[in-house]
Amino acid sequence: MFQRNRWSGACRGLGGIESGDRARLRRSWCGDALGRCLDAFGSGDRYRVGHEGTEVLSSGGDHPIEVGPLRERLLGDGRLVEWEHHDTIGSTNQRAATRGREGLAGPALFTAEHQSAGRGRQGRVWESPAHRNFYGSFMLQPKVEQAHLAPITLVTALAVADAITSAGFPDAAIKWPNDILLGGRKVAGILTELDTAANGEIFVVVGIGVNLNLQEGDFPPELRSKAGSLASHGGHPVDRAAFVEALAQAFLDRVDRFEKLGFAALRPEYEKRHVLQGREVRVDGGEGFEGRVLGVDDAGALLLATAQGPRAIHAGEVSLSGAYDSLASEDS
Question: What superfamily in CATH does domain 11-270 come from?
Fold first, then answer.
């Protein structure tokens, strides 16, 4: 999974959720409108694997995930109520949002071997080679008041780092709020969206893309210093089915802790993995300024020490630039 567009350290926004009707309920997380994906739900064979669901076999491709054994592991403890695995789909976020609007309460997981219309921040197109990476979206109705949902992207980033660690890469780092890095190169990203069901219940869709088995030559030359994968970093392939299982468990565990104790209980772990902690960065947006990263607060905002005093970075306000180049060069 890589982004064919300007790759920067830009990160816009961690602001409040606006009120509005179900078609316009939006939230800005790291520059992404939190609302419905504009990607059309793609055609393709799928496995719908719920406790009362049916299984539809896929023609698949060269190396699709073996669904049967993984289904038992994902749904066995009852915490995940449904898993859909698609051969080809437009967007797992769109499919998750569709099911949420239909009334599925979740937690549910929607994955795909290939996305034909995956999108990243600010509507950028993401390449999604089949059978190589993880493309998936979690959908749930969080047991958290809407006003306190802001850190859910940061909570997810911790879960992704947990799963990458379980795959044998304990040096997974987080760049606020939603990028995961190995060796200074981005290997994963998160797109969070908010919507409402027909009954008025709010649900969250968290889309995750992780580069698992791409090699350096699979990336465009202009991205090779900034984007990577677990396989290119570690020199060996990653078991994708095992990764799906690890990520599902990590996500459910992290969300459970967040719902019970709030982000304050997770913040020390986030800051421990936070690659920008203590660094001097430039923030682009408005008048622009520079500062040293102090950490994040209990609401998930980025805290900076600037010449004008402490500042908390919120939604639609900032763009962090230049981070990937410096991080990659330090590790090389």
Answer: Bira Bifunctional Protein; Domain 2 (3.30.930.10)
HSE value, Cβ hemisphere, 13 Å, CA-based, for 317? 12
Residue 182's closest CA among 291, 51, 316, 273? Answer: 273
Cβ burial, residue 286 (10 Å; 0-12/13-18/19+)? exposed
Provide the β-strand partners of residue 284: 319
51: number of Cβ within 10 Å: 10
Distances from the Cα of 158 to the Cα of 2, 68, 154, 163, 273, angstroms: 21, 28, 6, 9, 8
Q: How do strand 108-115 and strand 82-89 relate by DSSP bridges?
A: parallel
CATH topology of domain 274-331: SH3 type barrels. (2.30.30)
pLDDT score, position 56: 31
Cα gap 305→278, rounded to integer Å: 10
Tens of pLDDT, residue by residue over 148-182, are 999 999 999 999 999 999 999 999 999 988 899 99
Q: What is the pLDDT of residues 15-43, one digit of tens each?
A: 333 323 332 333 333 323 223 222 222 33
Arithmetic mean of pLDDT, 110-137: 75
Query: Taking the CA atoms of the chain, what radius of gyration do you get in angstroms?
Result: 19
Indicate the SS3 state at residue 137. Answer: strand
300: closest CA among 143, 139, 141, 156?
Answer: 156
